[in-house]
């Protein structure tokens, strides 16, 4: 079968979502989570933050006209749903949208026939529990027949970024016997679902998470809109086993698949993403292999319950898996959950803070293993091939790193690479630098750079890890530095959240990143064409990310300063840059 014939429903194909949304527990200080950028020009009452900026500590308590948001409200987007759609998934030509919808409608018969047994079992879990259902990536509506057969009064909301799917979906709904008033098509992306918190009984996603730009953000949105006890059911194709021939084929075809099949990834470990999403009601994830699906034969399917429990006197969240036979209570989803499991009275349970990172698992998911020869070659290239770039960018770096003087003794650099920035730290005798990189082959180059910069051996530590799961405690570093890093991480939103987590209050995030050229420009068109090749050749580097917008939208409480530049020693397709600082 052709690539299009086996591709999943489309959602997003370009940049990752601008910020995580999720349920945030209500704080006793209702004004604590307000995240407005407050300038320092006013003469109102202020206090000096450790970062050196003045913040209006009394502004929220003494000025009732400010737009105070309750701390439990999900982080609402400053953009409308349609603006988010355009930002996250730039418009495609009508002929492409129509062709892809037609292919999904006509080319998936054998797949749907083989998967039907799995779907019937999953949709049975909705009986008597779900009257209002949201399906993300509804596509042409192949799942409608399962709703009507088991839920007579069901109301379905179908989200899809491809508006050409609507006519096919409505036809499928009518053929399934669903009344026209019981189905609503919503043109949107799953990273920004235009529905209220706790508003649906169930969320369905089949062949969707392979195509979204930001899996973490999508799962957070699913949790946000699910009612307590609501169910998320899913079927997703996933990466084959590491080291297998099928995985090798997937690695080779993945860049082409993303272009041809509207952002579909062949190598995502979607099961791990879902498992790590921390649905408090527990997880039921199974594996299957479909013979009709060739190089996307590996699947996961199952359901999550959105059961939500917390102790008003405790600030931690807990994950409770569905095993054991102790005292239980029956959730509306039909499952038994351990209400006592989240209690501090049971210290023998593995209690995890919601901010804790599982570095090893996430590292393997976010940065797939590469052959040793590739890692060594890439490290050597960065060590020898970036000298002209470093010479041109030096002035920008010096100005940025001057902001650390007297304010940062413990620094984390993510994507430290071969250590080109270590010379900028060395003027501070007391500085301690954590250098983190997923490529272990970078270590010898980074240690050599540290030595050349005059850093004492005990003041530099190389850590193998990814920005999505930093193996450091909360509020543990004075500064985080990233130069040419956010172009390559798998999940920009998660990386920025991790940066905020490990920064101390008043800490500084310094960044220099190449970014997408202006929309509609010739340069941007070339970037779009070359982006899949760049990801393969340059260890995941994306040419088309709007990194400045993502940083701006990340919600750094102390504000963000972003500047633009063009670096001419770089190939012209990656000349546009942003650089600046963000403050916690």
Automatic annotation (TrEMBL):
GO molecular function: S-adenosylmethionine-dependent methyltransferase activity
Pfam families: Methyltransf_11 (PF08241)
InterPro entries recorded: Methyltransf_11, SAM-dependent_MTases_sf, Thiol_S-MT
SUPFAM superfamilies: S-adenosyl-L-methionine-dependent methyltransferases
Ranges of residues in domain Methyltransferase type: 134-234, 412-511
Protein name (record): Methyltransferase type 11 domain-containing protein
Lineage, broadest ranks: Eukaryota, Viridiplantae, Streptophyta, Embryophyta, Tracheophyta
